[in-house]
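Chapter summary example.
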Amino acid sequence: MMNSQHAMVRWGLVLFVAVTLASPGALAQVVKKKRAVPAQVVAPKPKAKAKTAKAREAKPKKTVTPKEAPKQLVVLTVEGDRGGKVRAQVESALRRAKPVKVASLKQYATLGKKEGLKGNALFTDAPLAQVAPKMKLDAAVTGTVSGSSLTVRVLDASGAVLGEQDVKLTRGKLAPADVKLAVAAVVDALSGAARPFEEPVTPSEPLAPAEPVTPPTPVAEAPRTPPPPPPTEKPLETPKPLEPVAERPVERPKPLEPATPTPPKTPDMVAIGPQPKDGPPPMDEEPESHTTTDPFLEVGLDTGSGGTVGEEPLRPPLARLTLGGTTTWRKYCTRPGVKSCGEFDRKPEEEQVGDRSDYESSVPYLGISAELELLPFARRPSAVRGLGVVLGYRRGYASTNVTLFNDVGQSATREVVATDSVLTAQAMYRYFFGFGSSRQLLGYAGVKAGLLSRAFDVEEDAESPLSSTHRLYPSVGLEVSVPLLRQVRLEAAGQLFISPKPGQGFNDEGGALNLEVSDYGTSVSSFGWEAELGVAGELWGPFGYQVRFKLSHYKDTFSGPGARIGWDNGGVAEDTYSSIHWGLTASY
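The structure predicted for these 588 residues follows.
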């Protein structure tokens, strides 16, 4: 009974609480409590990207080391290099090497002239210290040929020796393996060589150390407002209609100011090498472009040098010997009382009175020839290198028919055997120059002067209608040689004979020389000239060839009575030689 009463009391309390909570007044109190609690405002966290950007700015930037530019050099004269063959091999191999860049020797020589240098010195290290800053040269390569070896020498821009290397020569040239060895020596010498004309710039004030980057200040979250204490409950009253409650405005956090990006710091000073103030600016070249564009027939002259000029300092041979033969045609005529053979032949036959003779080779006569050119100063770099001498000897054997006309017009033809001998002794001076795009061809232009002797001796036969002629006279002339290829060289020359009178010789046997004048008159005046044109070239090594055509002409004008019939008032004699000279040459 007691248990049932307690159970009823408990269930009654439960029912009372449920009814109370379900009443309208209780619901209104619950709504008021919920609206009275303020909203919690949390400041937005900074974006991760902003922190990442600041962290990136705080890290030091990595410096990228620039790729080292190739060293620029010029290949100078190789002493003792005949024909410039060794220098051409070294320059060609260096142009294909990537660590270096070969400059033009022609531009080097042009700038050297502006420094007051001349001649062969333009292609040596003499102007290197002055020209290197203008061409931005790091080094220069030169060398010396001694026997069968080559000493490759590397110089810096001031002319100091950076390194040397001896390589072997095979028949005056470098083998492929030796070329690689020479190029490797040049590259190794330049690997530790700095460009001396680029002086480092020292800043006037020390650079300030980099400021440490301050880490960003963390953004604090807005403090949470504690909720107000719950209002004291009043005794339950009769619920009244709910009044609208004004909502509390929600405070929004102020947006964070965007981080100002720090501008990249630029260095206070930039080291810049000194730039040349005078001279032509350096030419821009493609990294792979090393070809020249010089015209094929460009000639570089240096007035008064007497030696080699041009890009390649080639040297002429010390001696050249020519051995060969001659093929000669001779035409000779004598006419009394006139100034030319043609004038006499144009007269009527009844007026053609007096002894006259005609000699014309029906077939050319052959002979031998030898010529020696000496240039004893060819190895000197001074102006005397063009001085030299030329010695020559020719001898031909003629056998032909001669027609003699007497005073009444009767003619007689006889066979005559004679010899034609020529001796030459002349001094010469030549200007040598490099020719062609690579300057490896050697040409020259010069003058020569000396003595010549020409004797046409007829066999000693009293019945011979033709007299001998002996001439000894000075001469002056010009000569030029223009090489087109190593195998082809055009040559031309001309001489003027000064008073080449007949009856002049080294030996007057019994007064025979005087008869060459007295037969035709009491005195004589003579004039003569010679012109030649030909080709020459190299065949193999020091051996070559030469072919020339020569035309020589003499005119003797006699005055006064002569011993022959019809030569009362002198007359004229004309002598013409046309010959082809051919032979082989050997140079040293």
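To summarize the output: The radius of gyration is 55 Å.
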